[in-house]
Amino acid sequence: MELQDWRKEPRKKYLVQIVGSFAEFERAMLRERTKSGLAAARQDGVVDGDQS
């Protein structure tokens, strides 16, 4: 399916919006996992940043 004129056709616009929603959701989940991992590392005594 070509999405060149997605703004003109409701089905294509709907598809683009769904794909965008999935991307936004995945970005939020990545942010959450990163924050959780950093918090766990700090709790284990790992220090952030360059140690050189």
Automatic annotation (TrEMBL):
Q: Which InterPro entries match?
A: Resolv_N, Resolvase-like_N_sf
Question: Origin organism of this chain?
Answer: Escherichia coli
Q: Where is the Resolvase/invertase-type recombinase catalytic domain?
A: 1-45
SUPFAM superfamilies for this protein? Resolvase-like (SSF53041)
Membrane spanning stretches: none
State the superkingdom: Bacteria
For molecular function, the Gene Ontology terms on record are:
DNA binding; DNA strand exchange activity
> What gene is this protein translated from?
tnpR_2
Question: What's the protein called, per UniProt?
Answer: Transposon Tn21 resolvase
Taxonomy, top ranks, is: Bacteria, Pseudomonadati, Pseudomonadota, Gammaproteobacteria, Enterobacterales
